[in-house]
Amino acid sequence: MTTITSSTGNTEVVSARRTESHDVSDIIGLFSHLTEAVFGRIDIMYLLEKSNLALTLCNEKSEVIAHAVFLDYPNWNITDQSDWESFLHENYINKECTPLNTLFMHLFVAKEEYAAGCSQEIVSFSVVPNRFLSFTEPDMANVFEKMMSAPGSVVDRNFTLLMCPRHWYHPQLYVRKARLEDYDDLMSIWTRQSETLKETYSEYSLADLIECQDEENQTVVCEDGDTAVGFMSLCSQVNVSLFHECFDLGPFHGLCKPHPEDILKMPQKTSIQEGICILKSYQSLWSLLLWIFLDGAVTVSHTELPLDDVKDFKGSATLLLETEEGSAFYPVYRGASNAFCIRLFFIDEKYETRSLDFLHYVFKLFPDKDFCVILIPHHVPEFHLIQSFVRAVPFCTSKLGYELYVFHSAGLLKSFNVRRATTNDQLGVKMLIKTLSLNESILNDLKIFTLKATPWHLLKYKCSCFITADFQILIFQDIEYIQSHYNIEDFINFNHHQQEEHGHLYHFVLNPIFHHYTKHFLKEILRLAHKSSLYYPIYPQYVEGRFQNPCAHSLTSALHYMVPVRPRRQIVYPLEELGINAPSEQVSKDQMSYSLNHINRKLVLESKASINTRIVVVGASDVGISYLETLIFCPHLKFNNLTLISIHGLPGKDLLGSKHRRFLINSHCFNDEDYAQMSLCSWVNVVVGKMTGINRAAKYVVVSKEKKVPYDYLVLCTGQKYQVLSPTGADISKLPTNREVISKWPQRYTGKVPSNHFTLNDDQDCLKAVHWLKENVVNSEGNIIVYGNTIDIYTTVETLLSLGINGSRIHLVQPPLSSNVTCLNNSEIESAVQEALSKAGVSVYYDSILAQWNEGDDPDLITCAAFTTNTKPFKLQCSAFFSFAYRTVDYETFKAINDACLVFDGRLVIDTKFCTNDVSIRAAGPLTKYSRRYYVDEWTHSNFSSKEIGFELAASMLNIFDPTSKLFSKPPEGTDRLIPMYKGCKIKGGVLPGGYNYLCISKPEIPIHLDLELTLCDRGMEIITGEARLGNYFRMHINKYSMVDSITCFSKEPFPVSNYICLYGQHERLLNDLYYRWNEGQITDLYSYFREPWSMAIYHDRFIDLKKELRQILMSEQVRKMTGECILLFSHTHAQPLHPPRRARCNFPPIVTIQKVPLCRSILDSRGRHL
């Protein structure tokens, strides 16, 4: 915050921030009669949309005091935006303005009395460029100076070019060697530094560092005037061998001098071996600087867009390579160390933006070194200096508790040039990309788009005398699909972007030493190609192996400067019923799903906050995936150290296809399309294996009893899994009953699991079972036993039938129920399922407890199974045994938790903020239970939506990482003992015996038998159409508040599940006056009712926004006044109520008939998000 003084002597405390859309009306209020004369006619929304930098000054009351807009090309259309540099050099004497250091002011408005002070504050806040220019003459003589015209200038005399160099407000600091006399100046800065720095170095260390300088140890200071304002301690001795063990330094040649005996590649070809991650190594990027393709057609197929193995040097763990002998391979560097390190650095906050001034000087102190490195603790936010460094990629198992940042002396360049490419550049490009595995594909594209006349723009980037970049651009053709399938309007307003201004980015490979210029490269692409937005789709690509780094794409070096765009929920349209009202083919067409990343002019100069905290998530459950999804879609945060530990890696690999996935019930939290649109493999490191230990003191997780994965925060989301159930061991020859063996049941089986015993917990287990059945059972004889009483037994039986296995060979054995609530909890549906089982010839047994396999020993193969009942036991021949009878926390997970002394009480104990008894370990999902101090043993996360739980878990931890998060007010006293009640619905769906499609959407609740629920006095109302046995059953329950709180569908025909999920929680009046129409007998089939055109609005992903805005309209003072007048008029005229027959013909509830309210314009929000 800064205090400014008005021309009348008044003062205001102001702060600068990025301009937001809701500031528009206040900015317009600052316009004066001179604004148009100075800047021309301004469409402020359009200008903000196309600006590179827009700043607003606000006072302590959040009132807008001033506003300025900057772009990277001149205003008044005085020259083409791609050619302004040559125009300036030809017409003005100053030759120092380049695209890298210059922005143009397109608008400045302020309260008249504060204009002078505001102009200085805005320019001093805008530290990105070195110069500000303006082809206007605003009243800012205290900030700008006139630039002299060159002889023969052709610029219109009505235009005056003004300039404001950065060093006027942020002068370049003088750097020199430190002296003991600087100690007092430095100590005043030292006292304001972080506690982490003070814990590492004492105040006396500072004097020792200054006094004990030699050739290897140097200390320097920067000074303003005669006062030292910053300090840096350097050392030429770097433990490079330690860095080789912890980080992938291949892109930096191991921080060593090149040597002819260096071993950079694997001597032999790699092979994938059990327990080790094998992928191709980093190839040398030493000759590569930058290569970019830009295209506008997002309809490119996956085969046309090969995503090979170009590895990212940033943001993820790197894979170890293994030779045939099994030892990990590391490159060997024989050369001398080529780096010096920064041991200690601090600077006065006022001068922080000039931190890079140190580097010009310190590289001269070590002329034989090319790299400067610095180690930063994981929890320390990136400060201004290291934002120009490159983060070295740590190995997944690195135990070094620091991040390594690297800077190359070549990164100090002051300018670069971008030009169009020609066929003469092909040889240079070939040399540039020769070490990349994508080189042939890139060269082929280069030849196509330089030899043929196409709408592509091919650009080259040059630094000194080297070709360093290529860009290609094509007019975007499929923007309507992007707009309808992704929330791109969170970042741009489509009304202000022409179709030809959208581009598709293909290749971007950047040498790490120039990584800090990425956003400037992207800014130049947009300017020279006359684009306003770039898009980069990432198609699904799956990597097998023990350790999996974020999936290799050709753009990974720039990916972190783009923002991932959330997909939009799509309506399943009944195209035939809609007819001419159906959406266009561009919107409704099927297309390969992909993750979309985006950048535009506004985002180019907006930095993300880097979070280096090591977050390890154990378990790829719905909760874990939802947690990761929430983190990666935070547009202003960049998580560099996200790791997932999972038995089978990331889900969503489409291993089975829709038919065989029916083994298990579907939670409908995520599907393959969702996983493709998330592209978790681009942001998350994956360790394939099982957690077998937790070392809380050293903060690492043991995976598969061998590898150690360190963490700063550990998130446990393993859930509960079906376990192998141990037989009771009862001797059936003695005719025991359940009463005699129930005390020994259920128990976990500890022996060797028979090869034909299956517990299915995920898609990989299902795939394994399908392959085994096809090889051993489908074409042979023998019984299949399905044991359990969860809903998965029915989906499994239906899948077995669909594989061609005769129903007479399937035996469904159900153990005793633990409560009176069945898995289907609907007697009509249960009767239909039992009828289907009987018709298929499936034998069903009830209240049966597993007594023996074979003859009671631990078999390698189950040939028969014996069961006890309430009367007499029975035995069944068995070729395959599917067990769904025992679901609990996995034993190895329990052992890891218990050995780590985390409180375990049947489940892992947490509080309402997901914390265990270790502040660094969080947990969520069915794995957990609330502490007994809450007195809610019956309520666990199992009662709620897993997707919502994952989101809330991430939201609770974002308060730790997000520097922009607001502090929440202290909750009311006494609420700390209340558990949160989440509102999302629980969903389960699948295909049941008889080919019935089943869906159950219910509110979070403690299960209660449906017949008992219907007897409650406040049960609400249920609407049922069709019959279960006919396959057209649809049940909807409306609670006492007239809200939909459960939906059950049971149909022979497929139905749009995603549409029906949108009905949950809606008021029945919003469903076209559902209750009234039902009572009037107008609804005979809910399936056809919810396919009618009116219902499409309910399914729209922005319908909830419409409801909120309509509520704001209805609650506004203007509408309330109008409503009061209408009621008064109605009472005076004795108007008659609407007759039922007329009301029955209304298409929408009466509340929606309120029209012509001025506030309705807010239904289109300031970003132009069309409903």
TrEMBL record:
Coiled coil: none annotated. InterPro entries: CFAP61, CFAP61_dimer, CFAP61_N, FAD/NAD-bd_sf. It comes from the Eukaryota. Residues 16-258 form the Cilia- and flagella-associated protein 61 N-terminal domain. Residues 980-1098 form the CFAP61 dimerisation domain. PANTHER family: CILIA- AND FLAGELLA-ASSOCIATED PROTEIN 61. This is Cilia and flagella associated protein 61. It comes from Otus sunia (Oriental scops-owl).
